[in-house]
Design a protein that fits this description.
Layout: H1 2-26, E1 74-83, E2 87-88, E3 93-97, E4 114-118, E5 124-130, E6 136-137, E7 140-141, E8 145-151, E9 158-164, E10 185-186, E11 189-190, E12 196-199, E13 202-204
Parallel strand pairs: 1-12, 1-13, 9-10
Antiparallel strand pairs: 1-2, 1-5, 3-4, 3-8, 6-7, 8-9, 11-12
Bound molecules: fe (ii) ion (FE2).
């Protein structure tokens, strides 16, 4: 029974997410090889961000990282992993983690809102999560964000974060407000079912 539910969920993810990915791939920006790539403009370089204190190694390989008890609206995150502009990377491991609706991270072995994804030859990855709640950092709230850690054989490890366009807390946050984060403040889209989506293409360097 559990397995059946799992299979149905995988089918569901494949059907719903890949339609949106196909749209995003068709709209890939032309990215040229350039030794003088400017990380601020994201010329084939995804900029780094802090790891933060809530990283927990060993997250399971799962696309849907929403725990069953969470009732928040889902968000699909998807994109491609490339190396040095033009090489779609197979066997890249994309790991994400985010806070729950209340801005709290699960650090238990349940690995709620944590997951890893290994890319195939198309370089594509996808996750189903939620738009995380905000949490206090000193006297101010950090904007809503999702943490990423990406590794691939032969490429530099990348630790980064994404933020959401029009989040009013971005300007007060030292990391999100940094110019290097500009290309990681992303607009929400909608898939054909009206579910929120966000596309984050990742460029690794050698
Ligand atoms: Fe965080």
């Amino acid at each position: 029974m559990e397995e059946q539910r799992d299979i149905k969920r995988r089918d569901f993810l494949k059907k719903t997410v890949w339609v949106a990915v196909a749209v995003s791939v068709s709209g890939l920006k032309a990215c040229k090889e350039d030794d003088n790539a400017d990380p601020i403009k994201n010329d084939c370089v995804t900029t780094k961000d802090i790891l933060g204190p809530f990283y927990k190694a060993g997250a399971p390989y799962q696309e849907n990282i929403i725990p069953p008890e969470n009732m928040a609206a889902p968000l699909y995150i998807m994109g491609k992993v490339s190396g040095n502009c033009n090489t779609l990377l197979k066997d890249a491991i994309v790991e994400i983690w985010n806070a729950n609706t209340e801005g709290i991270y699960d650090t238990s072995d349940a690995y709620k809102f944590r997951g890893q994804f290994k890319t195939e030859t198309d370089g594509l990855y996808r996750f189903k999560t939620i738009i995380p709640g905000r949490y206090l950092n000193g006297g101010t709230y950090r904007p809503s964000h999702i943490h990423f850690r990406i590794t691939a054989p032969g490429y530099n490890e990348l630790v980064s974060q994404i933020y959401f366009k029009d989040d009013p807390f971005i300007t007060e946050d030292p990391w999100a407000a940094d110019p290097s984060a500009a290309e990681r403040i992303l607009p929400l889209g909608k898939d054909e079912n009206g579910t929120d989506t966000v596309t984050f293409d990742i460029y690794l360097t050698t």
